[in-house]
Amino acid sequence: xxxxxxxxxxxxLRFLSNLDxxxxxxxxxxRARIPFALSKGYNPHIRLSMGxxxxxxxxxxxxxxxxxxxxxxxxxEFVEKINRTLPPAIQVKACIQIxxxxxxxxxxxxxxCYSFITNMAIEKLGLWKDYILQQEALIVKSRGKKKNVDxxxxxxxxxxxxxxxxxxxxxxxxxxxGEPLNVRYDELKDLLMQTGINEENIVDIxxxxxxxxxxxxxxxxxxxxx
Amino acid sequence: MKxxxxxxxxxxxxxxxxxxxxxVNMIKKDWEEAQAKMVFAFPDVYEVGMSHIGGKILxxxxxxxxxxxxxxxxxxxxxxxxxMRRENIPLYSLESxxxxxxxxxxxxxxxxxxxxxxVLNMLDLSGIPLWSKERQQGCPLVIAGGPVVFNPEPxxxxxxxxxxxxxxxxxxxxxxxxxxxxxxxxxxLLQELARIEGVYIPALFQVEYKDDGTIRKMFPIAKGxxxxxRRRIVQDLxxxxxxxKPIVPYMDIVHDRAVLEVMRGCQRSCRFCHAGMVYRPxxxxxxxTLKKQAAAQLASTGYExxxxxxxxxxxxxxxxxxxxxxxxxxxxxxxxxxxxxxRVDAFSIDLVNEVQxxxxxxxxxxxxxxxxxxxxIINKNVSDEQLFSAVEAAFKSGWNSLKxxxxxxxxxxxxxxxxxxxxxxxxxxxxxxxxSKRPVEIRAGLASFVPKAHTPFQWRAQNSIEELDKxxxxxxxxxxxxxxxxxxxxxxSYLEGVMxxxxxxxAVAIYKAWEKGCKFDGWSEYFxxxxxxxxxxxxxxxPDFYNLRRRxxxxxxxxxxxxTGIDREYLVEEDERAEKGIxxxxxxQEGCRDCGVCMALGVDLQIKEGSANAVES
Lengths: 226, 617
What we know:
Distance between the termini of chain B: 60 Å
Number of domains of chain A: 2
Largest sheet of chain A: 9 strands, mixed
CATH topology of the domain at 2-230 in chain B: Rossmann fold
Strand order of the largest sheet of chain B: 2-1-3-4-5-6
Mean pLDDT of chain A: 94
CATH class of the domain at 2-230 in chain B: Alpha Beta
Oligomer: heterodimer
Strand content of chain B: 5-15%
Order of helices and strands of chain A: EHEEHEHEHEEEEHEE
Distance between the termini of chain A: 16 Å
Radius of gyration of chain A: 19 Å
Number of strands of chain B: 19
Structural class of chain A: alpha+beta
Helix content of chain A: 10-25%
CATH class of the largest domain in chain A: Alpha Beta
C-alpha cells in the first residue's frame, strides 16, 4: 500500500536540512509503529520518499512525502498516529492512498510558490509586480551548485500575486522547479533586492506550496496522482 | 531572544540546528516552579556534547526524578561566537533561551583536558566571572564533573566545586543542598557542600610547595572539611537511573543512536588506561534490565540503531544472549545493533558478523603495541596469535579494510618495538591479501602515550615532542604500499600531558592562553601551540616539570587527595611489574589482585549473567 501525505513545517524547524527532515520523519514513523515497508538489502531503510527539498532557513506550508506500507492501514488512522509522534512544529495535514505506479513526487512536482512577508505598502508592491511581469529578462547571479553565472529568472517566474495579511503585505511568487529551469528562493530574494525591496522590508520567507503544473493549471500533488 | 535568534542571528551561521533546541523528548520545566536550576554545559559543540551518555543520564535524572530543573548549553562554533559578541547576545540554554547567569548552578562536563579553554570562553560569553574568587553572591555556582576531574587541580581556581565519581550518585544531593541553603552566604554554602561525599571545594584547600616545585602538603583550611575526597560510586547499575526517553536531536550528531550502558568499569588492567583504573570495579546491568531499557528507548526515540556501550562490551557476561535477543526482536523492523568496542580475538569477529547486518565497512582493533614484550609492559593481554586469528576471521567473512590502533612513546619502548609495529601491520595485511581478491588497505592510528593520574604509569615521564617526532620519522622513513599510518599530533599530546598531571599553579597560564585566543584546542584547525607556550612562558611555568620528569614513589601528587579506592601500593606494584615486563591478569578470571577498590568503597564486582567470561566459555 502506498500513501501520499501533505505536511507543514513550522518556523521552529526551518533550519533542518533535507537529511535531517528524512530522519525526523523516519523516527516519527518508528515511534508511531506505522507498518512501513523496508527496502531489501544489507542496510534496510524505510521506503519513504520526500518531495522537493525544502531549503534550509525556510518553513513550509504544503510539503509532501510518499510512503510504502507493509500492511493496509486507513489514511485517517495514519494521520492520527503520525501526528501524535511528530514534533508540534511539523504536522501531516492530509493523506491519500495512491496507486503503486504513481509517478514519484520528485519527478512530478515542477512548480513551487515562495512567499515573502513584507512590511511594505500593498499599493507599492502592486506596482512592483507589474514592473516585474513586464520585463523580458530579469538577470541575477545564480546560486547553488553552479554559482555566479547570469540567470534569467523571468523565464521561470510563472505568476505573482500580492495580498494583505494583518499589518503585512505578502508577495507570492510561483516559479518553475527542477528541469529545465530551477528558480531558487535565494535567487528570488536577490531579485527583490535588485528591484527596490530592502532586506529590512522582508520580515520572513516561506514556501507556501508545491505544485504539478500541467497546461497552465496548478494541481496539488494530492490531486494529480496519475 | 528566541525571535531575534531565529530571524537575525542563526541564518548567518553554519549548522544553525545546533542552537535551536526544541528536539523530541526535550524537557522544559516551569522555571518558577522548579527548585534549584542547573544548566548542563558541555565545552564542545552540540554534536559532540549530545553524544555523551553521562549528560543524557543527568538530564533525565534531574528533570524526571527531582523538583530541580536542568537545561543544556554547548560551546558555540566560532562563527556564532563572533555574532554573539558583536550583537551582545549572552550564551543561553536551549530549553528556555535564558542566559547561563540566570541559573543557580552551571555544571560543566570535563571529558578532555584541553576543553578547559572552551569552559572559560563559555563563562565569558555568559558574563560570569572566570575566577571562582571573583564570583559574588547571586552568581551561579560553577562546577564540573567527568573523567578529567580525577585530577581537577589545574582547573581548581576556575570552579566553585567539583563532583567526583558517578554523577547520578551525587548530583541530586548537591542540588538539594544548594536549594535548601539558598539564603546562605556563598562561602558558608560552599562549606556546607564540602560535607557531601564526592564534592570537592578547591577554595577550601591550600597547597604548600617544596623548593624543588613539588608539593609539600595539601590540606583543608576550614573546619569540618574532610582532607580526602572519596569518589561516589553506583553500587548496582540495575537500580541506578537510566533515561528511557533521551532527547532525539534533529541534526546529525557523532553518536546518533539509542545507547545501552551494559556495564561500568573494566578490569583488564591495562596500565596506561585512566578509565580502567578510576571506574573500578566492573558493575554490570542484567540482560533483563537492558532489554527493558532497549524497548523503552526505541519506543520513545524511533532510533534505527542501538549501541551497547561500555569500556569493553565484549567482556560483558551477557553479551551473547543480549545481542541475540535484540537482533531477534528488532531486526525485522530494520533496527540494528552495534558494538562500539571490540576485543582482539576471533570470537569477537564472529559475534560482530552475527549482528552487523549492515554493509561491512571498516573494522577496528586495538593491539596498542607492536611486540609481545611491550604489550606485557603495558599489560595489554593480547597475543600475536589472537590478533592474527581475529584478522583472519574478519577477512574471511568479507571485511576488506582494517584499522589498527597503537600507541607510541610507551614506557620501555625502543626501536625494535617500532619495527615490530610495522611488521605486525605488514603481517595483518598479508593475511588480508590472502583472503581478498584485491590487495587490502590497512590503516593504523598511532596515538602518543600520555601518562595519567591514578594509573600505574603516573610516575613515568612522557616522551618529549622531539622524541615523538623522531619516532614518527623513524616509522615513516620507508613507504609501504596500502599501509597508512596516522599519528596523533605530538604538540597536542604534550599539552594534554601537562594538564593531566598538572597542579593549580597552571591556572594563570590557562587563563592567559584563553586571552590569547585559544579555544577548541581539541580541533586541530583551532589549536595554537605557540600561544600556549607563550602563555606558559609569560607565567614563568616550565611545562616540562609536569610531564618530562620521572617522579619518585615518595612524591606527593596534586590528585592524591582524591580517593578512587585503589591503593597506591597496588599502583606501585603494577609499575614495578611493568618494569620487569610481567603482565597481570583480570581479577574476574584470576582472583583478586588486591587493588583495594572493593574494600575501600564497600562495593563488589558485579557479574550479572553467571560466568564472568560467558563469551569464551
